[in-house]
């Protein structure tokens, strides 16, 4: 078979893999690491945060008399395979979430395994479809700090269009200073998990479920 015949075949294969997905991918997206064993709460928690790109950020609403207000936001905890476990956000005070945080920084951030695509056909509320809520303080990152550079790299590498968002909207970097972790990844209720265990979980701990 000549080269002229082989080239179209390789091109078709490339298009198929690009749009359908490579082996080991979920919905056409390559997973950087496989889902950890549910017995390893720290690894599961860090996996959920590193693999997701959005969640629901909840603040104390200044517009609704102190009622909780949840907002879908994009986030990143670091460069691919180098997550810190700390969620960073790119927010504008034109949106209620940032305005609320600047007045009352109490917040929580909820992430589900479901968007990753590894829950199969089960309902998102099923305990085996992991979910995590991180509670703490939503803090503005000093724009002149090294942490702001880290936040920028982390967010823009995961959400490329952010760098083109309107300058007159005055987007700023925020982070969630975690104080409490609520994790469910199997039957039996929430898993005990301290902040120290979460932050010091090695990404090498991730192991696939056999």
Number of helices: 5
Measured between the Cα atoms of the first and last residue, the distance is 41 Å
On the 0 to 100 scale, the average pLDDT is: 86
Secondary-structure element order, N to C = HEEHEEEHEEHEH
Number of strands: 8
Q: What percent of residues are in strands?
A: 15-25%
Helix proportion range: 25-40%
Q: Specify the structural class.
A: alpha+beta
Major β-sheet annotation: 6 strands, antiparallel
Low-confidence stretches: 10-31, 206-210
What best-fitting shape do the alpha-carbon axes yield?
A: globular
Structural Rg: 19 Å
Strand order of the largest sheet: 4-3-6-7-8-5
Pfam family, one: CREG_beta-barrel
InterPro entries: CREG, CREG_beta-barrel, Split_barrel_FMN-bd
Keywords: Glycoprotein, Secreted, Signal
Family: Belongs to the CREG family.
Secondary-structure blueprint:
Blueprint: H1 3-20, E1 25-26, E2 29-30, H2 41-51, E3 54-60, E4 68-74, E5 88-91, H3 96-103, E6 106-112, E7 131-140, H4 146-158, E8 172-184, H5 195-199
Keywords: Glycoprotein, Secreted, Signal
Organism: Lithocarpus litseifolius
Main location: secreted
Characterization of this structure:
With 210 residues, the chain is of the alpha+beta class. It has 5 helices and 8 strands. A 6-stranded antiparallel beta sheet has the order 4-3-6-7-8-5. A two-stranded antiparallel ribbon has the order 1-2. Strand 1 and strand 2 (29-30) form a beta hairpin. The radius of gyration is 19 Å and the shape is globular.
Summarize the structure.
The protein has 210 residues and is an alpha+beta fold. It contains five helices and eight strands; from the N terminus they run αββαβββαββαβα. The strands form two sheets. The chain has a six-stranded antiparallel beta sheet.
């Amino acid at each position: 078979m000549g080269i002229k015949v082989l080239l179209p075949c390789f091109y078709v294969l490339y298009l198929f893999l690009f749009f359908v997905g490579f082996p080991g991918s979920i919905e056409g997206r390559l997973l950087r690491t496989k889902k950890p064993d549910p017995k390893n709460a720290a690894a599961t928690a860090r996996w959920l945060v590193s693999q997701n790109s959005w969640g629901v950020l909840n603040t104390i609403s200044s517009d609704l008399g102190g009622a909780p207000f949840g907002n879908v936001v994009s986030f990143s905890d670091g460069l691919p395979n180098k997550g810190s476990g700390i969620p960073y956000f790119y927010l504008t005070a034109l949106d209620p979430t940032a305005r609320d945080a600047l007045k009352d920084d109490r917040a929580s951030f909820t992430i589900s395994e479901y968007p990753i695509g590894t829950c199969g056909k089960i309902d998102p509320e099923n305990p085996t479809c992991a979910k995590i809520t991180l509670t703490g303080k939503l803090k503005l990152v000093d724009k002149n700090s090294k942490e702001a550079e880290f936040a920028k790299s982390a967010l823009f590498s995961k959400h490329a269009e952010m760098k083109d968002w309107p300058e007159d909207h005055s987007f700023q970097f925020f982070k969630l200073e975690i104080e409490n972790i609520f994790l469910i990844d199997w039957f039996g209720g929430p898993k005990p998990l301290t902040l120290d265990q979460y932050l010091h979980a090695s990404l090498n701990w991730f192991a696939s479920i056999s």
